[in-house]
Write a structure and sequence with these properties.
Elements lengths: L3 H5 L3 E11 L8 E6 L5 E6 L7 H4 L3 E5 L5 E3 L2 E3 L2 E2 L1 E5 L2 E4 L14
Antiparallel strand pairs: 1-2, 1-4, 2-3, 4-7, 5-6, 8-9
């Protein structure tokens, strides 16, 4: 079991997708995104969300992401943050987002 201290170690924030494009080099279909996290700046991410979303859908969308994991390399692309979503079935992701627009960089607790 994870402890409350484990949860507190995660830095989870809201950001707005500035740009998005298909990521055909990825092993599993994905979308590359640049996300604005306010005071934290712009971060890149790759997400396997193509079952429900297109690149065009993502621009302007607010998403929730863990911003303090180390960067990962995915098919040569640096992914700085982990965008969060519900996974009802394998390969199917429904992104988490706030009910109302909030300032980029707002913490999730």
């Amino acid at each position: 079991m994870a402890s409350f201290e484990d949860f507190k170690a995660l830095d989870i924030r809201v950001g707005t997708v500035l740009s998005a494009e298909p990521f055909p080099e990825a092993r599993v279909p994905a979308i590359k995104m640049v996300i604005d996290f306010g005071e934290l700046g712009e971060k890149q991410s790759s997400a396997q969300i193509t079952k429900r979303y297109t690149s065009e859908d993502m621009v302007g969308k607010q998403v929730i992401a863990v911003v303090n994991f180390p960067p990962m390399r995915i098919a040569g692309y640096r992914s700085d943050v982990l965008v969060l979503g519900a996974v009802p079935n394998e390969g199917d992701v429904i992104l988490l987002s706030p009910d109302e627009h909030v300032e980029n960089g707002t913490r999730i607790s």
